[in-house]
Amino acid sequence: MLIISCAVLLLLMGLLYGPGRNSNTKLQPPEAAGSWPIVGHLPHLVGSTPLFKTLANMSDKYGPIFMVRFGMHPTLVVSSWEMSKECFTTNDKFLASRPPSASAKYLAYDNAMFGFSVYGPYWREIRKISTLHLLTHNRLEPLKHILYSEIDNCVKTLSDDLVKIEMSEMFGHLILNVVLRLVVGKSTVVIQKGNGENYTKDEEEGRKLHKSIIEFFELSGASVASDVLPYLGWLDVDGQKKRMKKIAKEMDIIAEKWLEEHRQKRRLQPLSSPAAVGMNHDDETDFMAVLLSVLDEEKDDQFFGYSRDTAIKATCLTLILAATDTTSVSLTWALSLLLINPSVLRKAQDDLDTVVDGAAGGGEASKLDFKGQDFVYTPFGSGRRMCPGINFAAQTLHMTLARLLHAFDFDNESGGSVIDMTEGSGLTMPKVYPTRSSPSPTPS
User: Fold this and answer.
1) What span, in angstroms and rounded, lies between the C-alpha atoms of 95 and 76?
2) So what's the pLDDT on residue 425?
3) Distance, CA of 78 to CA of 61 (rounded, Å)
4) Exposure string (b/e) for 308-328, b if CB count within 10 Å is 16 or more?
5) CA distance 392 to 398
6) Looking at residue 49, what is its pLDDT?
């Protein structure tokens, strides 16, 4: 009887809030066939095939703009640069917000992480502060030595202990160290330990944080019933919400520790010091110290509806999470593609030898527009919600890959088989199967 009652309730909710209640008579884009009552196109969109491939196949059938229904939510899909330009120019403001989701609520401090935030004054202010005090070219340029020193540490570690390495783990630890030094002033992750060596407490914390970052992005891209059927918010059938709360708690404990360390440091500093002044910080002041100073200028404990501590922790974790995962995933894909195309890998290394020898040239790559201005290639998005970390990503990805390719030859360690390039699930499409290699130093 309970099952029948629930089924009737779901049907009524579908009738009340479903597409049939929409009286809008404006011309609508075509809707993909096969929509089910209440759940919409979900049966066609979930499964082993990555979502982007399913949508690409639909686009071949329905054209560059069409509708699908994620449960109760009508969703517009665009797949041409012309339609993309319309979205990010003429209609940019209407598409600048974010829908409510379980990941935003449980993983992102109830939308306080500005990547998940709705479009409004909180998002604008936090993004402005983050860009101005960390992500501009002028701010990153004097901090290049941090990137260089971490890459040098990685190269030295690999040279001293030539063993088989797993690429995504190596890149993840390297980039996390760079980002941690920029954001909280410390690097804690060791890329490789020798046999019998134990990790320090800080090193264990760093490795735990990296694992949490991986799980964070996996869960951010997961399908939760309440996201598509809001009236099922009380359900957690597959335990995804429980996992989200666990990961959020683990990261919050670490962020709270960083915040307390920074507050302790501020209490010991004279009021005239750069970290205490905030806006006049020097090149060595990390972002959390600056953010603490800027937000401490607010008169009360609230910052656009969030406590100051929540805003600081959420913003710092946003930068750490986004920079670490996206950059390390991109580096893993780049090196994997080079390994399955040895002639291209050889050419890249030859070009690097030429550049390092002093005969640097432009080449075709410099003509590639990756800033999304032509809307054909938009790895950082476009419009108001364009990724603010474009300067960091371009600088870090290119320098890391170039330095490692110049220092080492990388062999395919997939047991003689072709590297499996299957795409995984999640927000940033990691590889399903790891890429392993045994680096050997290139001849001097």
Assistant:
1) 11
2) 79
3) 13
4) bbbbbbbbbbbbbbbbbbbbb
5) 10
6) 84
Copy the structure tokens of residue 258: 């960083």
The SS3 assignment for 408 reads strand
**Residue 6: is its pLDDT beyond 90?**
no
Q: Could you tell me the pLDDT band of residue 135, with boundaries at 50, 70 and 90?
A: very high
Asked if residue 213 has pLDDT above 70, the reply is yes
The secondary structure of residue 66, as a DSSP letter, is E
150 neighbors 395 (Cβ within 8 angstroms): no
CA–CA distance, 414 with 349 (Å, rounded to integer): 22
In what side-by-side order are the strands of the sheet with 436-441? 165-166, 436-441, 408-412
Structure-token pair, residue 410: 């990388």
Question: Rounded to an integer, what distance in angstroms lies between the CA atom of residue 155 and that of residue 406?
Answer: 10
Half-sphere exposure of 148 (CA within 13 A, CB side): 6
β strands within 386-428, DSSP E: 408-412
For 12, what's the count of Cα atoms within 13 Å in the CB-facing half-sphere? 6
Burial (CB < 10 A; 0-12, 13-18, 19+), residue 195, is: exposed
Q: Which residues contact residue 58 at a Cβ distance below 8 angstroms, ignoring those fewer than 6 apart?
A: 32, 66, 68, 77
CA distance readout (Å), 425 to 158, 167, 221, 275: 30, 18, 7, 41
pTM for this entry: 0.85
- Six-digit token string for 98: 């974010």
Query: 135 by DSSP, 3-state: which?
Result: helix
Q: Are strands 302-303 and 306-307 parallel, antiparallel or unpaired?
A: antiparallel
**Which residues lie closer than 8 Å to 12 by C-beta, 6 or more apart?**
none
CB 355 within 8 A of CB 362: no
Q: What is the SS3 assignment for 293?
A: helix
Q: Tokens 């750069």 label which residue? A: 274
User: What's the N-to-C CA distance of the chain in angstroms?
Assistant: 77
Instruction: State how far the Cα of 148 lies from the Cα of 82, in Å rounded to an integer.
Output: 40
Is-contact 407 400, C-beta < 8 A?
no
Sequence length of the chain is 444
Cβ proximity of 73 and 229 under 8 Å: no
Question: Six-digit token pair at 60?
Answer: 């071949």
CA–CA dist 182, 136 (Å, integer): 13
